[in-house]
Amino acid sequence: MLSKLKYIDAVLKETLRLQPTAPAFALESKVGDIVLPGGYIVHQNETVVVSLSQLHRDPKLWDRPEEFLPERMLNGRFEKLPPNSWKPFGNGQRACIGRSFAWQESILAIALILKHFNIEFVDPSYDLRIQETLTMKPGGFKIRVRPRQHLGIALNVNVKQSEKIPEKLKQQVKTENLRPMSILFGGNSGSCQPFADTLASEAPLYGYNATVATLDSAVEYLPNDRPIIIMTASYEGKPCENTKQFVAYLESKPKLEINYTVFGAGHHDWIDTYQKIPTYIDEIIENAGGTRINERGAGDFFGALEIEASEIGPMERHLEIQLPKGQTYHTEDYLAVLSTNPIEIVYRVLKQFNLSSDTRTKIVSSTDTFFSTNYPVSAFDILRGYVELAQPISKRQIVTLAGLCKNEKEQISLINLDEDAYEKEILEKRISIFDILELYPSCELPFPQYLRILPSLPLSGLGRYYGIASNYLGNLKEGDRISCSVRTSNVRFHPPEDTKIPIVMTAAGTGIAPFRGFIQERVAQFVCGREIGRTILYYGCRSDDDFLYSDELNKWLKLGAVEVKSVFSRQNNNGKKYVQDLLWEDRNEIANLYCNSARFYTCGSANKLGVSVKACFIKIIAEMQQCNEEEAKKILEKLSIDRFSVDFFA
């Protein structure tokens, strides 16, 4: 049975690669004058100490050696490792004799913990700090564990602080017979989780008690006693960070007797990869024996949220955040900001429901919810920091509100909005649920139901119409305190560990932001005397006036640490308007960098820069390899595993 827990086995192997139980072992030469790589001579009977932490981080053997990647131990890869490349228990006769028993015990212990408990960080932004006593351990690292069990009634709200939960309601909590449901999500940008949470909060209305978790957490544990809803996006045609293990598990071809449906999220402008992973997951589960309870759905999560710039152009802000003492981060990590709704909107909502700012509410819920439950919280705090008030109302929510209208004309008017007029009258004008309540006064939506249908306020840096993130950050003053945490970005979108590897960065507009960090790191390494590879930035914007960080870049350019190649779309550039034009002009140089193991990075708009730069690289590869476009696409896809990385925004 333990042999089936393949991913736990891989996790242990990868853990011991990075933190072996034995720090080193010694070898003695039986013959004399052995010349080691680097010119070192070992004489007879001399002792050589092998450092396991360095052996297990040999970049010629381990790709991205400092990263924790259990997948490198799966699907026969561990068995294909060269002899003596993984020796966490020591060497030869002096190696740990109890390792087989310890291995079985460890797998069993981890499996039982995961079976009976949900585990989470006490501090989600924790970054590894080594504490050394007799052994090495993570300093200040704490986890919170909770039994895997759930209560069972729908969301209820008591507006008055003094009110207690009625005895009848308490009895209902114990006896409500809700059927179980699992909602599993995957995504890098944070768009799928709020959608999953909203779906779970509405599940009791249809007789279900839904739990929400990441797809990776369901590896080996897909239940067959309940419907499973899977929602995920693709990342450049690959699984998202919290979906990789799940896809690897499916590819091991387990037998799955489950009832499921898949909902794919994404952006329609990513033509080649839109819905690729959701479709793949849907097909592979069906082939493994799963029963599809509904056809795969597809949603363009970002298309409806885009706002084109006005004639005055986009607004940019440069903010520097001082992190708490002891908080660390890596170049190109994300800073997730918990923004708040504008106060003026909060007061309008309070007025709509005849509530004061100090009205206390107590929320009781049987399902997982983003609300604070079972103790009083002010209505102001809930509306300010828990729910998103400005998101456009959905078609389904329009139908719900229409059914609550007492005025027949208003009801008909709302129903008509659910048809052809929805995009023009709702999405383009950014009409929220609250806007509808103001426009249609006969709609009697109770405050508890209003809270139930609102999405959570996400940790995000993506701006929304009425300042959920962009307006919030734009109005900050020097010295203001914000709620934020450091989040690890896509593992591939980081500078290479080896500073000698050349890097080529392509950006447009505010897409330069992560590359400023890349270049700052390389400049620091250069100033300290380390050898660095060529560091090249291709940058495009409208004009000289829009060239972000030009003074800094010129300073680093004079140091000789970076090369900058720019183009302006609204100025005469000898026929060149965009960065892809520069890339194509320099295609021979790009090909040479490719042959010299350079890493390529792109950041900017998905539907503009992303599509055009990818097309340009395909043309360059086709010319360099003398192949057709389809073959060039396959080469670029292989390159995307570790040498062609992107970070796009909608």
From TrEMBL:
GO cellular component terms listed in the entry, alphabetical order: cytosol
Pfam assignment, any one: FAD_binding_1
Keyword Heme: yes
Cofactor: FMN; heme; FAD
Keywords, sorted A to Z: FAD, Flavoprotein, FMN, Heme, Iron, Metal-binding, Monooxygenase, NADP, Oxidoreductase, Transport
Catalytic activity: 2 oxidized [cytochrome P450] + NADPH = 2 reduced [cytochrome P450] + NADP(+) + H(+)
Protein name: Flavodoxin-like domain-containing protein
